[in-house]
């Protein structure tokens, strides 16, 4: 219950704080904070390779980031975390405690700075299923959606549907149809900028390079 007080979930493919009717017009420059891979549990699991990994190190780093963001003046319009919010995959024993600690951490984010979550492979699974995607949505909200801030259009996508759609063909196709609609809207010329958030980058340096390796 406490989670719902501070955490606004994306639903119906939109974000409650940032609707087009209220935020569709350009109001001048603003800024936001973008981060990724808070991934509670990564260090002791992948780097230190401990048999029973904890995530105190990630908690400390995330706390420091939140404190720095809260101290900014003027405040950023939002803080977006672009995937791998936690390390534990859906259906594993550490999933729930890592989720709980993630939400406990972000209770400290100033209430005037909405948290926007983007899903990564650890959040929905390397090979997502209907169930794993629903697990994510139940906790964090929609896995793809559009929102608007000060005349800028922001599109959030589930990049895992492009990486490994085999078990979720219907969901991947639904997102693709939705994305075509959003891109048509983006081309309308109504918005000062259009920004896409996702976890897996299309490429790092060259558009024809090999696929990104995920950890």
TrEMBL record:
Q: Which SUPFAM superfamilies does the UniProt record give?
A: Metallo-dependent phosphatases
One matching Pfam family is Metallophos
Per its UniProt entry, which superkingdom is the organism in? Answer: Eukaryota
GO MF terms listed in the record are: hydrolase activity
What InterPro entries does this protein's entry cite?
Calcineurin-like_PHP, Metallo-depent_PP-like, STPP_CPPED1
Q: Which residues form the Calcineurin-like phosphoesterase domain?
A: 65-203
Q: Which PANTHER family match?
A: METALLOPHOSPHOESTERASE, CALCINEURIN SUPERFAMILY, SERINE_THREONINE-PROTEIN PHOSPHATASE CPPED1
The protein in question is named Calcineurin-like phosphoesterase domain-containing protein
Tell me what organism the protein belongs to.
Caerostris extrusa (Bark spider)
Q: Which gene encodes it?
A: cpped1
């Amino acid at each position: 219950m406490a989670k719902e007080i501070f955490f606004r979930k994306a639903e119906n493919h939109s974000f409650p704080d940032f609707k087009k009717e209220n935020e569709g017009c350009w109001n001048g420059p603003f800024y936001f904070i973008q981060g990724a891979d808070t991934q509670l549990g990564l260090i002791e699991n992948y780097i230190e390779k401990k048999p029973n990994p904890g995530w105190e190190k990630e908690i400390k780093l995330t706390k420091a980031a939140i404190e720095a963001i809260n101290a900014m003046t003027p405040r950023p319009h939002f803080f977006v975390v672009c995937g791998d919010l936690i390390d534990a995959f859906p259906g594993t024993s550490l999933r729930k405690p890592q989720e709980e600690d993630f939400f406990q951490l972000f209770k400290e984010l100033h209430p005037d700075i909405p948290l926007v979550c983007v899903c990564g492979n650890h959040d929905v699974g390397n090979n997502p299923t209907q169930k794993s995607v629903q697990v994510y949505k139940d906790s964090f909200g929609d896995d793809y959606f559009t929102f608007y801030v000060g005349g800028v259009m922001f599109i959030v996508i589930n990049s895992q549907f492009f990486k490994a759609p085999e078990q979720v063909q219907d969901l991947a196709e639904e997102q693709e149809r939705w994305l075509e609609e959003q891109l048509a809207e983006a081309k309308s010329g109504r918005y000062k900028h259009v920004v896409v958030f996702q976890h897996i980058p299309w490429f790092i340096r060259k558009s024809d390079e090999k696929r990104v390796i995920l950890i």
